[in-house]
Write a structure and sequence with these properties.
There is one protein chain. This protein is mainly alpha-helical. The chain has one domain. The chain is 88% helix and 0% strand. The protein is built from 2 helices and no strands. α1 packs antiparallel against α2.
């Protein structure tokens, strides 16, 4: 696999993962229960992780 293809697949994976975390956060924020709060927290941690991953890789 060429380096260009690998970088493209990694970028697509990061985008999909980010969108999944944002959707989880939105779903968790729609209702008020302890499980929804946990879901929202997981989504927020995922978004923060994605931001860290982006900043770490652009050094």
């Amino acid at each position: 696999m060429s380096d260009k293809t690998r970088r493209g697949l990694l970028a697509a994976f990061k985008i999909v993962l980010y969108v999944v975390f944002v959707i989880i956060t939105i779903i968790g924020a729609k209702t008020t229960s302890w499980s929804s709060l946990g879901l929202e927290c997981v989504g927020l941690v995922g978004v923060v992780f994605m931001l860290w991953w982006y900043n770490h890789s652009s050094k």
